[in-house]
Amino acid sequence: MSTRTLPLLFINLGGEMLYILDQRLRAQNIPADKAKKVMNDIITTMFNKKFLEELFKPQELYSKKALRTVFDRLAHASIMRLNQASMDKLYDLMTMAFKYQVLLCPRPKDILLVSFNHMDAIKDFVKDAPAILGQVDETYQQLIEMYTPLSNGDFQLIRQTLLIFFQDMHIRVSIFLKDKVQNSNGRFVLPTSGPVPRGTQIPGLIRIFSCAGEELTRLQFHNGGNYSSALREGSFEIFGDRVTKLGTNMYSVSRPVETHMSGTSKSSAQHTKVNAAPNPLAKEELNLLARLMGGLEVQKPGSTDTGFRVNLFATDEEEEEALISRPDELSYGVINIQATKDQQANAELAKIMGEFTESGDQSTCGSSKGDDLLAMMDGL
């Protein structure tokens, strides 16, 4: 497992989230000033310096539920609100879109180009806000410094880590189904045509060499596809042509997107129960999440700001039906972080704890975890 995967996962999922929200804000005719505020607030929070410092530290990926909690907080960093069903759909669309992009990358290193496509789009969202633009540019530089020196093997390990994270997610997405790149069971269809990866040749030729390295003979075979020569190398600089279209915005108002649980996913969910036994990794994972959340400056709507709700479904009835029909195991609840003593001893911790909504089973976060969180937060 690669310890450098989390920043790429976060930035690419965040980029997909912004694409979807931008599409829904326009589709619901939200006033331009409010829509702009939502996008700016989310991007400001997403590229918070303290948060990114924690994000870029080498660390293992944690569970889908913990990551979902971070994006739940991020999506509500402004005056916009989503209910549970819409948040579930948003997260499904984000994860399936990025999973498809990872699967289609010709080379593992191209995951970085996908990330830059998302960063380019995010930069365009805040082109009229110089302060936020500066935050995004700093993150560009961090990505370049951390990832461009990596070897092909390092990027292959990152790709494997991402695919392991996504391997049990098989949500059907209408765009993918209509384009016939996803089957009815939620699994993607990989193409057997198009340009080959950079640095490789079109398959179809076998060359046989002698022990001295001299070519003896050539054999040709049918490769079963319709391949073409590799495209030119995309730019890994802050400004430049990425060449690949993976990671660009695939949404539009005229093309609504629906998600559906595949039969296999429903079946597996019904047979997957939450393990009640203590998880030895849960304590460390929760502390990591709290450290990350400590860097998030979530803004509360001011007295002059009027909050509004965004629905990712066509109607409220569809949204309610989706909430009822979704298996409980696949509706990620927000992790409850509970401090059990002396909350007033640390002002920042008290502020963070006040932003969390207490919910769920108290057994998931016992007193010892709360004590650890208090001790850890004192060092922030």
Structural overview:
This protein has a domain at 5-190 and 239-253 and 307-314. The chain is 48% helix and 7% strand. The protein contains 14 helices and 8 strands. The chain has helices at residues 6-27, 32-46, 49-55, 64-75, 84-104, 110-125, 130-147, 152-166, 174-178, 263-270, 282-294, 316-325, 347-355, 367-377; strands spanning 80-81, 171-173, 193-195, 205-209, 215-220, 226-228, 259-261, 308-309. A hairpin with a 5-residue loop joins strand 4 (205-209) and strand 5 (215-220). The longest helix is centred in the first third of the chain and has 22 residues, at 6-27. The model is unreliable at 263-279 and 333-380 (pLDDT under 50). InterPro entries: OSCP1.
Care to give the gist of this entry?
This is Organic solute carrier partner 1. The protein has 380 residues and is mainly α.
Keywords:
8 strands; 14 helices; disordered C terminus; 48% helix; two-stranded antiparallel sheet; globular; OSCP1; mainly alpha; 380 residues
* Main sheet properties: 2 strands, parallel
First-last Cα distance:
27 Å
Order of helices and strands: HHHHEHHHHEHEEEEEHHEHHH
What's the gyration radius in Å? 23 Å
- Content-based structural category: mainly alpha
Could you tell me the number of beta strands?
Answer: 8
Spatial strand sequence of the major β-sheet? 1-8
Mean pLDDT: 77
Mind sketching the topology for me?
Elements lengths: L5 H22 L4 H15 L2 H7 L8 H12 L4 E2 L2 H21 L5 H16 L4 H18 L4 H15 L4 E3 H5 L14 E3 L9 E5 L5 E6 L5 E3 L30 E3 L1 H8 L11 H13 L13 E2 L6 H10 L21 H9 L11 H11 L3
Parallel strand pairs: 1-8, 3-6
Antiparallel strand pairs: 2-7, 4-5
Helix pairs in contact: 1-2, 1-5, 1-6, 3-11, 5-8, 6-7, 11-14
